[in-house]
Structure formats: C-alpha cells, structure tokens
Amino acid sequence: MPPSLVLDLKFAYSASDAYQALDIMGEEMRKDYLKCLLIFDIPYMLIYTLLFIQLFNFLWKGSQVRLVCVGVLVFDFFENLMIYSMIQIFPDYSPFLGFGASFFTSTKWVFVGIMVALSLIGALKKIFSHERQGLL
Hints:
This protein is mostly helical. The protein is built from three helices and no strands.
C-alpha cells in the first residue's frame, strides 16, 4: 500500500482526507488494511510498549515517565478502532470517525515524539552520570 494512503502514518488529516484515502484504496486494499490492523498493528503496539517501558525503567528508575508509553498505546489503540470502524462502514461517511481517527493518530505521534525525546535525554543522562553501570 502506498504510504500516502496509510492513515496511521499521517498527521492532522481531515475526515474528508481520510475517506478520500479509503476510496482510493479500493475494496481489496481496504480489506488488506483491516487485516494488517488486526494481525500486525495490535501485536506491534503491545511489543513496542513493553520494550519502551523496559527501556524507561532502565533509563528513568523510579520515574513515572513510562506512562508516556502507555499513552502511545492508548492513542494507537483508539486510532486503530476508529480506522477499523471507518473501513467497516465505508462508503458511509462519518465525520465523527474521521475526526476521531485524525485526533488519535496525531496525538499518538505527539506522544511518540515525547517518548523518543525522553529516550534520548535518559540515555544522555545515563552516559554522562556517575552511575553508568550496565550502559556501554
């Protein structure tokens, strides 16, 4: 599937943009998109959440920053739920689902950015601290 059609990869799209992408996909590609959401994306989001929680446990001992990882998981889950629902009712148009999908996708990407920044800051903090045990 062309990346330009994958709603999970977009940021701040409109409901009409989302439905236009679904229309361009065609029926077969929409079916494949549903399969990918269910077979790959849901397990993937659980795996990356657990990995980042472990990383944050190492980099930020005793801190609650790992809640950012849970935030990414929650927003990714609701993004998938909205996209799944949009595909299920297609060609019917729901501005609520289109806006919801965009909101959750965009918020997920904001949280991903925060998560990456916290990972880099935590790694630098570890590298330059006096307690470098277990790192490098």
